[in-house]
Description:
By secondary structure, this protein is mainly alpha-helical. It has two domains: about 5-180, no CATH class; about 185-400, no CATH class. Helices cover about 65% and strands about 5% of the residues.
Amino acid sequence: MNRPLTALFSALEAVLVxxxxxxxxxxxxxxxxxxxxxxxxxFIVFWRTAxxxxxxxxxxxxRLTLDPVMAAGLGFEGAGTxxxxxxxxxxxxxxxxxxxxxxxxxxxxxxxxxxxxxxxxAAFATISLGLTLSVLLAAARPSIWQGMLLPTLxxxxxxxxxxxxxxxxxTNTDVLGESARGIVRGLHPEVRTIIVAGxxxxxxxxxxxxxxxxxxxxxxxxxxxxxIISLYESVHAGILGGITLTIGxxxxxxxxxxxxxxxxxxxxxxxxxxxxxxxxxxxxGPIPAIPVLGALPAPGxxxxxxxxxxxxxxxxxxxxxxxxxxxxxxxxxxASVRPFLAAGLASGVVGGVLLGMLAWASAGSAGPGRxxxxxxxxxxxxxxxxxxxxxxxxIGLLAGRPSRR
Length: 405
C-alpha cells in the first residue's frame, strides 16, 4: 500500500469512528422523530441532541440556557439562568477509545504507520470541529476549541494503544521512541525493578476495585429493580422514549461504576450540592427523576456499608502477594526491606493516581442549582485509595519476605 492509499485508508477509519459515535444516539432519536413525533418537529433538534451527547461524552463543556417553562417545571433554584454542563457520559468516550484501538491496529498493519496515524488524527480533528460548528446554538453552545481537541485526544489514546499493542514485530518505527526506552534502561536496576513492580501492583489493584464496583452496581440494579421501573413509569416517555432513555443511561454506566469504586474506597460521591452517598451513610436531597438513580441506596439501607472499605485493602494485599515472587526474583541479592517497602508505596501511589483520575473524569456539573456538584471528589478518592492500597501492599510484600541472615 503506497502513501496516498495509506492516507486515504486512515482518513476513512477516522470518519467511521466518528460516524458510529454520533449514530448511536442519533438512530433512536431519528426513530422517535419519525414515529412518535410524526416528522412534525424539525430534525435539526435531534441532530443537535445527538452531536451534543457525543461531544459531552468526550469532556466538551456545553453552555445551556433552558426555556422558561422547562426551567420552571424542573423546580431547581437557578434553573432559568445559563449554566455549563461538564459531566461526561463516559460510555461515548469508552466507545471512541475501543474503536480507536481497532483503527490503530489496522493502521499499524500498513507500511506507513506513522503517516497513517497522523492523517487519521488530523481527519478526526477536522470532523470533530465540523460537528461542533454544526450544533452551535444560543440555547446549547459547546466549546469550539474543546469540541475539536478533546474528542481527538480520546481517539488518539485508542490509536496509540492499538498501534503499539498490535505492532508487527517486523515494524521498525516506534511511536514511543528509542529515547524513552533509553531513559528507562539508564535507571539503576533496583529502581527500575521497584517502578515496574509498583506499576504492576497499582494497576492491578485499581482494576480489582473497579471490577468489584461493577459487581456491586449490578447487584444494586437487581435489588432496586422495582424503584427503577417506577421511575420509568413516572417519566411517561412511551416505548420509543423509554428505549432512547435507556440508551442514554447506558452511556453513563461507566460513570456509575466509577462512583461505586469511590464508594468502596470511602469518600463516596455526591448527587447535588450537600448530598453524600458513602459507606458511612446516604444523604440525598431532591434528585432528577432519572430511572437509573433509583438504584442509589436509601438512607440507612446499608448498615454494613463500612465493609466496602475492605475491598481496596484486600485488593492491595492479595495483588502484592502475587507480585512479590517476581519482585524478589528480580531483586536477587539486593532483596531487603527497603525495596519491598518502596514497591508497596509505589503501588499505592499508582493505584491512587489511576482511581483519582477516573473519579475526576466521571464527575462534573450536570445541571443548574445544586446539580453543579455531581460525582466523587478526585483528590479524596485518590488520597484514600493511595493510603489503603499502599499500606496493604507494603504488608503483603513484607508478610512472606524470606529472612536474610
